[in-house]
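Working notes for the structural subgroup meeting. M.R. asked for a predicted model of this chain before we commit to crystallization trials. I am recording the input and output together here so anyone reviewing the notebook later can reproduce the run.

Input as submitted:
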Amino acid sequence: MTGILAARDVPAKSKAFDLLFAGALTMFFGLISLTQEHFGGILGLMMLVPLIWRRTHPEVVFFGVSAVAVLQWLIGTPLQGGNVGLLVALYAISVYGEVRYSRIALAVGGMGVLMATSRYNTSNDWRQQATMMVSLGALVFGVWAFGERRRTRGMYVQQLEERAAQLERDRDREAKLAVSNERTRIAREIHDVVAHGLSIMIVQADGGLYAADASPEQAKKALATIGDTGRASLTEMRKMLGLLKQDAQPNEVDPNQPRPQPGVSSLPELIDNVRQTGLSVDYQVTGTPRDLPALLGLTAYRIVQEGLTNTLKHAGPGARTSVRLDFGREMLTVVVTDDGRGAGLAPGSDPGHGLIGMQQRASISGGTVNAGPKTGGGYEVVATLPYNLPAGGDQ
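Returned structure, recorded in token form:
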């Protein structure tokens, strides 16, 4: 009985309409029912007044009105205007009631047709009885079918609304994820800029301090390099930090918005800056160079930058470094090697954010990065980056 007694949530406007509708039926058909003898008027009112709750308690209303109709049949009260409440209650349960009770209501309506035909058709002509039975049956089934159609349509509209709401939630979720991914990318960019810039500045500061007494001109040159590197790094970092505003909305992240993203064409300038620190860098390009997608070019640049930064940190004085780009038929191979003491690092030590960042960048582009000590001394970073980005990759 829990399903029958549970009230539906109905808007206030609908409740007001139900009250007016039931009141109009009661005023019209109820007055007609009052002209009936015996209990006809009372029974008519009992079948019309409950229609006020036909939307909130459709099952209770239908089976209550049906019970009054059965009582009418048992005491032999003739059909009267109040019997229209049966059809209204049947329609209500087929629209607002549970499906199982709606099917039961149809069966009850069919039984009511048989009972009405047997009681109120006094003709002995079977054709008249059949006509009355078919007519009442068609009326009952038509009212029920019309209600079922409205229920189905309402469920379809509700499903469309739920689907639209789900799509909107998915869109918002994807937008937030895009913002999160963008922030992660920018954070990685900032790490690369700061780490590389600071490494150069530290090397130059140490060299300038060493040469301050013996070679003032060399010390001035080191200080100038520190200033230039600091200003360039600060300018690039400010541009990227501008994209990390906390009040930025998801739709403000435009993947087509131009950003300061270097590529392989910027590698000679990067290597020249590193050479000014005193590190010997050999730069080679093999194969046939080609135009690379922005993401792929940026990935190659950052891998070389991180490799040179690690060399400055760990290779030690006098180390020699080699950077090689091999433009193959299907992929670009980036190799950064040195002959310094970096190989002395424990293989199981923490690789740091730089190596993790290189691996993440390469994986986004569908490539791989392998880094570790070389046989015979030194350290090597090898990255393979396919030209064709994986489906769904960030362009």
